[in-house]
Amino acid sequence: MTSTSKGIRAHLASHMRDYGLLFALIAIMAFFQIVTGGTLMRPVNITNLFLQNSYIIIMALGMLVVIVSGHIDLSVGSVMGFVGALAAVLIVNFSLPVPVTIMVCLVVGGLIGGAQGYFVAYWRIPSFIVTLAGMLVFRGLSLWLLEGQSVGPFPKSFQLLSTGFVPELFPDSWGAALAAVFGTRNFNVLSFALGLAAAATVIHMGLKKRARDLEYGIESEPASFFWGRTLIVSAALIFLMFKLSTFRGLPNVVVTMGALTLIYAFVTERTVIGRRVYALGGNEKAAKLSGIQTERLTFLAFVNMGVLAALAGLIFAARLNTATPKSGFSLELDVIAAVFIGGASMSGGSGKIIGAVVGAFIMGVMNNGMSIMGIGIDYQQVIKGLVLLAAVFFDVYNKNKQG
Amino acid sequence: MTTLLEMRDITKEFPGVKALDQVNLKVKEGEIHAICGENGAGKSTLMKVLSGVYPAGSYDGEIHYEGALAEFQGIRNSEDRGIIIIHQELALVPELSIAENIFLGNETARAGVINWHEANQRTSALLKKVGLKESPTTLIDSLGVGKQQLVEIAKALSKDVRLLILDEPTAALQEGDSRKLLDLMLEIKAQGVTSIIISHKLGEVRYVADTVTVIRDGRSVSTLDAKAGLSENQIVRDMVGRDMSDRYPARERRAGKMLLEVEGWNVWHPEHSDRQIIKDIAFNVRAGEVVGIAGLMGSGRTELAMSIFGQSYGRGIKGRVKLHGQEIDVSRVDRAIQAGLAYVTEDRKSLGLILDETIRFNTTLANLQGVSKGGVLNANAETQVAEKYRKALRTRTPSVFQKVGNLSGGNQQKVVLAKSLYTTPEVLILDEPTRGIDVGAKYEIYAIINELSAQGKGVVMISSEMPELLGMSDRIYVMNEGAFVGEMPADHATQERIMSLIVNE
Ligand SMILES: Nc1ncnc2c1ncn2[C@@H]1O[C@H](COP(=O)(O)OP(=O)(O)OP(=O)(O)O)[C@@H](O)[C@H]1O
Ligand SMILES: [Mg+2]
């Protein structure tokens, strides 16, 4: 008996961070669900929550890679705003077709990231300074590009990037039947089916990994923890998708976001290049002596960040249906905070995609919940700041305790 | 003689590892007490328990110090009682001066203002005591490891030391420096200070120790009286649990075809481009040959090796490297690895390992192609590779998923070696491969070197341990101030001949 309870305690101690994050997200959602009198979880609000946070999450994916590699990018908010402005000017003023504009904007994002990465990687100028400069430069350039005005609106096809919904694939009669069962006005079968499929995948993958761990004698988590965690995550997925399906279904941007999250999680955890990024951030000199081209890798991390910031810029502009000189201002702080809340370490070498995404959702739910409650922007900032500090303190405290 | 310290039934567990299992240690007042044991036996852990790094309550057992139960909550606590520990890894701040380092955290301050005049004066006195002829304002950066070690001791002496603990103080030192340090220990002993020394160099243990406690697998197995004359074999037997008659495994010496040729190798300092570090060096290695490079610390051996290995050191590099008679491209580390070179660094912590990652992560790092397909890693293959090398090198660890940073020094060295071996090199360059490694593990590493040579691979061994160089090499190059000053077959080589080549230059 003592040995199992000891095992559970040891496991908890070493995985406090992971459980803590999940628990924090659930607790925060529950809290706001109660204090907003149920508004938080209303289907329309959940849809909004996704739309509002999609660009933060997309940038957090790139930021995680940058931070794991041992750097930081302060320019992403400005770059995002700049690219949105560029898209507006190209489409509205120059009447460029939407697909061409999107391509151009993504390439420009990559070039911007590359330019900053070049100075960081090959001239060894601290990324803090290079991207601080970038932040100022692109703020200025957005103003210049838009000549201080808002530019819009966008054509319908461009708006779909953000506010569009995935069309229903199943027959309408199914939807009507299910709507009757659940007593809702309408029901999008596709999104609900996807929710079920996602939950099944989570359980399946979890079981597979667990079986492999056991085979190799890796100390895996106690069964109770495994099932608790897996069932909570699956249930949450089904619940969220159910809510979405009773509104207008699956927003396009959720698909983009979900796909990117999966891709980045896979690349960072399962591929050679991902492994090298962790090695680079963990010990650059040792990585170099192991044959890793550390400069090129750093450079690529910034290029990647630039492309994602550009994508975020497009989605943001599409959502507002206009580009304003101020869009993207100080968003980099939310992105960086999300990554650190998600458990990445300032010194590089550690952090996970899924953590960054959950971190972004924590920030997002707090923003949304506090707005619904009518808390002023002043208090909101204070509270968000304290949450960030608490999360990182929790990390450090845990590490110290483990010795 | 009275007992100064007694540690009773000390047990210390880490998640998944029982590092210490009812260890007993009794240290008498005024003696030098050596602790010997294999890598990972628990020596450093025991000293961390003693000095409060692991506070009372985090271990089982009792510490009796100066006749009373002691429960140290931290380093400060034990320091106040005169227990000073100098860790395996030096803890000086390189950018600060000697005086600043000595009084760091212990400044001679009055109302927060440091009296540098007094600090420098006291430092001078301390430096004199440890026989170091340096000014108190010299930066640590500019001192060699040997002198840094002396500064550490001076720092200890500045704190009213009663019990001085040295964890492998001579691991990184050349023989002359080691001898100086040991003599200093004897001198301190004459002044009534008790010392504990951990060392893998048994010759030194015999030279200074009055008593030897041997630890094996986290248990204290014996306490030997060294004053009556103790043979190294006796210590070794207790350490490894069996007799070990040979220190160097036998090898059939047979040099085959020409393998590696380096010609006209010139390297300049990375920052001061007018300082030439490597001067027109040429050497070769034949298949199945073990080639030693002898030289003093700072003679440029590491710089030579690293500049060849993908230009990891220096700039303006000129020269040619041929393998099997064909010139190879060594302009980048990945290319050098691809071409068949491997280099095992002397500085495993900062150049060899990613300490926060697992053994598995580190083992496959230099050859990720070997465990991936189309850029996607195969976790099973990785685990198998890591397991294979863990078994082959007998790395002591509960599993390959253990963080490398949690391994003992010697086992970390094995992981660095595993990483290089997994790149299946034609020529392996080893830089101080047995630094801080116990006799048993040394033997294992020598056996691996022999196996590589039997497979027709070439080995270049840089070492400051003369006996090892003489015992393992087929041929020895002698290096001094960036140039080769001699070459001799190992059976003609002696320590004296090598030293005379260096001194005559
Ligand atoms: N913080 C830690 N977490 C987990 N295991 C640890 C930790 N510190 C030490 N160990 C383990 O405890 C054992 C004893 O380690 P220790 O460093 O005391 O060995 P050592 O005798 O000093 O070896 P060496 O001669 O190589 O320095 C090793 O198996 C090591 O892996
Ligand atoms: Mg040790």
Features of the shown structure:
heterodimer, A: ABC transporter involved in vitamin B12 uptake, BtuC, 2 domains, 16 helices, 78% helix, B: alpha/beta, Rossmann fold, 3 domains, six-stranded mixed β-sheet, binds adenosine-5'-triphosphate, binds magnesium ion
Chain pair with largest interface: A-B, 30 and 38 residues
Structurally, the number of domains of chain A stands at 2
- So, CATH architecture of the largest domain in chain B? 3-Layer(aba) Sandwich
CATH topology of the largest domain in chain B: Rossmann fold
H-E order of chain A? HHHHHHHHHHHHHHHH
Please characterize this protein's 3D structure.
The complex is a heterodimer of chains A (403) and B (505). Chain A has 16 helices and no strands. In chain A, 43% of the residues are buried. Chain A has helices at residues 2-35, 43-68, 76-93, 98-122, 127-146, 156-163, 172-182, 189-215, 223-245, 252-270, 272-282, 284-289, 294-320, 331-341, 353-373, 377-402. Chain A is globular, with a radius of gyration of 22 Å. Chain A is mostly helical. Chain B has three domains: 3-240, P-loop containing nucleotide triphosphate hydrolases (Rossmann fold, 3-Layer(aba) Sandwich), CATH 3.40.50; 246-340 and 425-505, Rossmann fold (3-Layer(aba) Sandwich); 354-424, no CATH class. Helix content of chain B is 33%, strand content 28%. Chain B is built from 17 helices and 24 strands. In chain B, strands 6-9-10-3-11-12 form a six-stranded mixed beta sheet, sandwiched between helices. A six-stranded mixed beta sheet of chain B has the order 18-21-22-15-23-24, with helices on both faces. Chain B has a four-stranded antiparallel beta sheet with strand order 2-1-4-5, with helices on one face. Chains A and B meet through helix 1, helix 11 and helix 12 of A and helix 10, helix 11, strand 20 and helix 13 of B. The structure holds adenosine-5'-triphosphate and magnesium ion. Magnesium ion (MG) is lined by residues 43-44, 88, 167, 408-409 of chain B.
